[in-house]
């Protein structure tokens, strides 16, 4: 692949390109990115890598960290990453993928959510090497005259090529004029930050390309764009989503996080390694060959589960979660379980489960007993009419809920 005047890229540029392409959906245009990498290597000036996030209601799971992981990989190559909080654009509302106008957030909601987003992002990015910016910094001073001048740099016809606008227009669904401002303002962020590369999900492609267009309009070298795919959830089919209950929240307990990673299929594991692990592709390929050669895929999955758990908690928490999982798989009881004291003996099992906070209702407790999902002192309970007298019991619901109940 030639760089500039027909020169071949150096090993450093080739390595940086491989890191960039790892797991990505599209890199546009790749040749320009290679030239930027080569120029950065020759001059020693880091490239400016931008990720913009509107602080909508925090709903963070590991699927959201795929783009942040890519930022961290580029950060580790020595480039300058910019975590841009769209406090101004949140006042408009991103129409991407919407079939109706998105309600804008209040300044108070934006501030609270922005703080949460940055705190979560800092679990993946190196905070000491991350530039935090808010787009109100340059969007507010733009003023009405500047906004009109900006709007003159793009046509309505081009705007209507965007899928969601086109579909809504065809269906007769209202499109507010201010929604056209969103992609313009996101593109203007790239002008203000002099971005070399902007990252986003596949649904952000139109907005990312707007940045390239506006940078050219303002006489800048246009940014390249990198889109990352949506991560499949625990089921390996649907994208990770809280509504589909196939997610791992990044604030979940270490033991739960570890166990959920171990529950994914052997096939999905390699996809997750590519998008979520900080191991090099060479290390991952070596692991793959070991599994293909007969080693237990569970060992590779345990490594991934420990890496992800350690990232959002600590190495010690990941080790403890592994030990907890081993204990449970042997039918053992974890070392640390909640202690609950209840009065009212004798008490029915379902009522005890409910009072101990292990189920949401007596009805749910009875359903779990019917399904063989309740154990008391390691023995499966099959009788819904069983009443427990005064004493101390280790109660287990499903694989992961335990309590030591003192009943008086």
From TrEMBL:
Known catalytic reactions: tRNA(Tyr) + L-tyrosine + ATP = L-tyrosyl-tRNA(Tyr) + AMP + diphosphate + H(+)
Intracellular or extracellular location(s): Cytoplasm
GO biological process terms held by the UniProt record: tyrosyl-tRNA aminoacylation
Leading EC class: ligase
Sample GO molecular function, one term: RNA binding
Chain positions of motif 'KMSKS' region: 239-243
InterPro entries listed in its UniProt record: aa-tRNA-synth_I_CS, aa-tRNA-synth_Ic, Rossmann-like_a/b/a_fold, S4_RNA-bd_sf, Tyr-tRNA-ligase, Tyr-tRNA-ligase_bac-type, Tyr-tRNA-ligase_bac_2
Span(s) of short sequence motif 'HIGH' region: 55-64
Keyword terms: Aminoacyl-tRNA synthetase, ATP-binding, Cytoplasm, Ligase, Nucleotide-binding, Protein biosynthesis, RNA-binding
Residues the record lists as binding ATP: 242
Gene3D superfamilies: HUPs (3.40.50.620), RNA-binding S4 domain (3.10.290.10), Tyrosyl-Transfer RNA Synthetase (1.10.240.10)
UniProt GO cellular component terms: cytosol
EC number(s) recorded for this UniProt protein: 6.1.1.1
Pfam families per the UniProt record, alphabetical: tRNA-synt_1b (PF00579)
HAMAP family referenced in this protein's UniProt entry, alphabetically: Tyr_tRNA_synth_type2 (MF_02007)
Protein purpose: Catalyzes the attachment of tyrosine to tRNA(Tyr) in a two-step reaction: tyrosine is first activated by ATP to form Tyr-AMP and then transferred to the acceptor end of tRNA(Tyr).
Family in the record: Belongs to the class-I aminoacyl-tRNA synthetase family. TyrS type 2 subfamily.
Record's subunit section: Homodimer.
Protein name: Tyrosine--tRNA ligase
This protein's encoding gene: tyrS
């Amino acid at each position: 692949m030639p760089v500039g005047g027909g020169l071949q890229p150096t090993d450093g540029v080739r390595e940086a390109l491989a890191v960039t392409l790892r797991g990505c959906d599209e890199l546009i245009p790749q040749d320009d990115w290679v030239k930027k990498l080569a120029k950065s290597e020759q001059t020693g000036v880091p490239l400016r890598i931008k990720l913009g996030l509107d602080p909508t209601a925090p709903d963070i799971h590991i699927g959201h960290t795929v783009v942040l992981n890519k930022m961290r990989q580029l950060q580790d190559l020595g480039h300058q990453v910019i975590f841009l909080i769209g406090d101004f654009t949140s006042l408009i509302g991103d129409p991407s993928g919407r079939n109706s106008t998105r309600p804008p957030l209040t300044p108070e909601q934006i501030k609270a959510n922005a703080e949460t987003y940055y705190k979560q992002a800092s679990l993946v990015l190196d905070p000491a090497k991350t530039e935090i910016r808010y787009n109100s910094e340059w969007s507010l001073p733009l003023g009405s005259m500047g906004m009109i001048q900006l709007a003159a740099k793009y046509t309505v016809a081009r705007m209507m090529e965007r899928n969601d606008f086109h579909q809504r227009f065809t269906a007769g669904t209202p499109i507010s004029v201010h929604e056209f401002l969103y992609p313009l303002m996101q593109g203007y962020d790239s002008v203000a930050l002099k971005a070399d590369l902007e990252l986003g999900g596949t649904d952000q492609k139109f907005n990312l390309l707007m940045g390239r267009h506006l940078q050219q309009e303002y006489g800048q070298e246009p940014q390249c764009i990198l889109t990352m795919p949506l991560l499949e959830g625990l089921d390996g089919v649907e994208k990770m989503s809280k509504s589909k209950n196939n997610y791992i929240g990044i604030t979940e307990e270490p033991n739960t996080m570890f166990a959920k990673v171990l529950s994914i299929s052997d096939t999905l594991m390699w996809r997750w390694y590519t998008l979520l692990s900080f191991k090099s592709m060479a290390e991952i390929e070596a692991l793959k060959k070991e599994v293909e050669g007969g080693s237990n895929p569970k060992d590779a999955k345990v490594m991934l589960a420990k890496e992800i758990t350690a990232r959002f908690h600590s190495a010690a928490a990941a080790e403890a979660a592994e030990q907890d999982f081993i204990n449970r798989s042997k039918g053992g009881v974890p070392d640390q379980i909640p202690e609950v004291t209840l009065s009212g003996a004798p008490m029915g099992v379902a009522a005890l489960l409910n009072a101990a906070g292990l189920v949401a209702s007596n009805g749910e407790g009875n359903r779990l007993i019917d399904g063989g999902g309740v154990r008391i002192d390691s023995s499966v309970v099959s009788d819904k009419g069983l009443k427990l007298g005064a004493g101390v019991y280790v109660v287990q619901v499903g694989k992961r809920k335990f309590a030591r109940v003192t009943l008086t």
